[in-house]
User: Fold this.
Amino acid sequence: MANLVGRMLGRMDRGAARLMRGVSAGTAAMSYRKTFVSGGDEVQPRGTLWTVVLVAIPLFGILAAAIWYAASAWFSLSGPPMPAIGYVALTLGVVFSLVIGCGLMALLFYSSRHGYDEAHRPEDSDSPSPQTEDGR
Assistant:
């Protein structure tokens, strides 16, 4: 049993190392999946359909309950009707929020793809490093 756990951890570490080296996430995920799904030398597929069904049914139930609650609260609240300027303000607020959110996500992906999120390494810079008073 300890040997099996050791092999599993070793494979998991190699999969994480591949992911860190830049191998696609799908390849690293497949390596990770093969580690825990294998039943010996041959990889046995696990029951993904049943797993999806068992997770999806309660989540859809929660979604339906949330929609029902929101709709019943929306229709049960009474008050004066919203003027046209209220709908304009609501629409502008939603559009502005979506534009800001999408713009920030685009900047996030852009900076990640172009290396702006990487740690600074002095050996990669073109300019010489400033010298200290003792000449080093």
In short: The mean pLDDT is 75. Residues 80-117 form one domain.
